[in-house]
Structures are given as C-alpha cells and as structure tokens.
Amino acid sequence: MPGLNRVQLIGNLGQDPELKLIPTGQKVCKFSVAVNRQWRDKDGNQKEDTEWFNIEAWGRLGEVCQEYLKKGSLIFLEGRLQTDRYEKDEETRYYTKVVASQMQMLDRKKQS
User: Fold this and answer.
1) DSSP state of 106
2) Which of 23, 46, 59, 63 is deepest in the core (most CB within 10 A)?
3) The architecture CATH gives domain 7-105
4) How many other CB atoms are found less than 10 A from the CB of residue 55?
5) Which residues contact 97 (CB under 8 A, 6 or more apart)?
6) Is residue 53 a contact partner of residue 79, using CB atoms and an 8 Å limit?
7) Cα–Cα distance between 32 and 19 in angstroms, integer?
8) Structure pTM?
9) Residue ranges of the alpha helices (H) in 1-112?
10) What is the DSSP letter of 71?
11) Nearest to 72 by CA among 18, 10, 14, 3
C-alpha cells in the first residue's frame, strides 16, 4: 500500500533564501520558515508559539524562491518531509527538512 508524505505550511521566511549550485549541477535554495500558533490557556490568557522549519527548493522552484522571496515574506508552501543523517564527533545526528514542491507568495502588493 502506498504511503503519503505531505506537508503544507503558511509562514514567514526567517532569512533571505540562499541558492547554491551543487556538484551534480543542480540548483538548491535553502531557507527557514516560521509558523506561528496562537491559543488561549485554561485561564483565558493569550499564548503564542513559533515552530521553525528548514526548507529546500530544487531546480526552477529554487530559482523562483531566491528571486522573489526575502526575509519576512509570507508564503504558502507544500512539500514532503525528509530526514538526513550525518556524523559529527563520531555521533550520528539527524536533520529534518521540508523539500518543497509548490510555493505561493501571500504578501499583498504595495499600492502606489
């Protein structure tokens, strides 16, 4: 039976996107997105929490992200979760990211 690995986020960029060319010749754009959540606790006090997501956008989507997005941009993003592992100090560490498949800019255009 096939599985489903899909993530949808609406949030703001934490830094300007960074586009890199990797040794295989592919382009990858990396940035982070902050997603805020608000709720009221049992005493009625307003609470807020921010979750940060590491994003990778490949190929043409990465180029578009690098060209049009900047720190603070509000976006809708769809993609899949991917966990990479690496060795540091003889210890295996894990890094989870969202590999983007679609992006939509949600910022309103400024009126002149």
Assistant:
1) -
2) 63
3) Beta Barrel (2.40)
4) 25
5) 53, 54, 55, 56, 81, 82, 83, 84
6) no
7) 13
8) 0.85
9) 59-68
10) T
11) 14
Tokens of 29: 């754009």
Q: What angle do CA 25, 20, 67 make, to 5 degrees?
A: 115
Tens of pLDDT along 12-64? 999 999 999 999 999 999 999 999 999 999 999 999 999 999 999 999 999 99
Which sign, positive or negative, has the C-alpha torsion 78, 59, 105, 52? Answer: positive
The mean per-residue pLDDT over the stretch 5-13 comes to 97
* Closest among 86, 27, 102 to 59, alpha carbons compared: 27
